[in-house]
Amino acid sequence: MKPVVSAKDIEELLHNGGDLGTLPAEAIFTPSARDLLRDWRNKGGKLPEIARADTVSESAVPGAKPLSSRSPKPELDAFFNSASCRNLKEQICDVGRRLWQRAYVDGNGGNIAIRVGEDIALCTPTLVSKGFMKPEDLCLVDFEGNQFCGAKNRTSEILMHLQIMKRQPRAVATVHCHPPYSTGFAVAGLVPPTCMIPEYEVFASVAVAPYRTPGTPEMGKLVADLTDKHNTILMANHGVVSWSHNNVEDAYFKMEILEAYCRTVLVSTQLGVPPKTMTPAQLQDLLKIKQSLGIPDPRYGLKECELCDNDEWRPGVTCAVPGPQDATVGPDPELEKAVQAITDQILARITKQ
Ligand SMILES: [Zn+2]
Fold it and tell me: How far does residue 109's CA lie from ligand 1's centre (Å)?
């Protein structure tokens, strides 16, 4: 008798870090199990040959082919109205609410997207506060920004998200918002200093993209060009955009981590003592964890002495040997002599009086 694989079996397997390739080749998959496998594949997950052949091949399950801008409209509609898509829409609404509650967005600012197929994404609508979105407000677009589904119009800033997804195949979700402390750094054109808080070092890789008019392809390109080595981009005079290779909540977490960090850095600079930093060796340990999590960082492979240089630490920094001026910092003998002579003269005059 052929084994039956349910959705619960698949969920448990994925939850425990199991390999879908271990599913029995002759298994019969329940309809909800097929849905899960299809979602998994649509999100870029790898499927074993057996599962693909048995459950999600074009012939076995109509509509199971990975969704793309070339999928027939009824297929896109079916996905857009499916329970699994509803779940993604709810995740976007949840992240929107958190952005608004934390004052990371203002007016109808900010936008969120999730990749749901080869070249299509679910995204937020224009002119709606991110704090009060409903699942039915969301839109389905291709990577050129053409809208297929959704009653409301997609946001114009989605083009930047789509350019990130095109450029960075690992980006499954993107979040853009205007958190005040981080945006302050973006207005100043400053990458926050490093080596102060482990959370920030492990989860965020920050760079600044120059200002361009929001929503233009040029702006999107400048941001997308940085996504090879960075997952959190400060957009000069504008805000922040982040991407995640995991899910939309993870992309949102980058915002919380960056915003908390920028705020903490500002507080620490007001305490009257220079902020202490961790050592390059301590940072190196954190970078090892970061690399194991699959998070990009431009510092992988740098020499230890280059890691915590907060003046100009980015690649291109060389390990500086103290120059001759630095070595002779201290009292100037000539100046000392002059001061001594003047002091002697004054003392001599006082004693004569
Ligand atoms: Zn914006």
Answer: 6
Which of the residues are catalytic?
Answer: 157
Q: How many CB atoms lie within 10 A of CB 160?
A: 28
Separation of CA 18 and ligand 1 centre (Å): 39
Interatomic CA distance for residues 176 and 235, integer angstroms? 10
How many Cα atoms sit within 13 Å of 27 on the Cβ side?
A: 23
For residue 124, the CA-to-ligand 1 centroid distance in Å is 13
Ligand 1 (single-atom ion) residues, CB below 5 Å: 239
Distance 31 CA to ligand 1 centre (A): 41
In angstroms, the CA 201 to CA 195 distance is 7
* Alpha-carbon gap, residue 219 to 243, rounded angstroms: 16
Q: Residue 87: in which H helix or E strand, if any?
A: helix 83-101
Span from the CA of 237 to the centroid of ligand 1 (angstroms): 10
What pLDDT, in 10s, does the model give residues 181-224? 999 999 999 999 999 999 999 999 999 999 999 989 999 999 99
pLDDT at 249: 97
Report d(CA 284, CA 301) in Å as an integer: 10
**What is the distance between the alpha carbons of residues 53 and 27, in angstroms, rounded to a whole number?**
11
Tell me which residues of the chain have a pLDDT lower than 50. Answer: 50-63, 312-318, 320-329
Tens of pLDDT, residue by residue over 225-268, are 999 999 999 999 999 999 999 999 999 999 999 999 999 999 99
The CA-atom distances, in angstroms, between 303 and each of 87, 274, 289, 321 are 45, 25, 17, 14
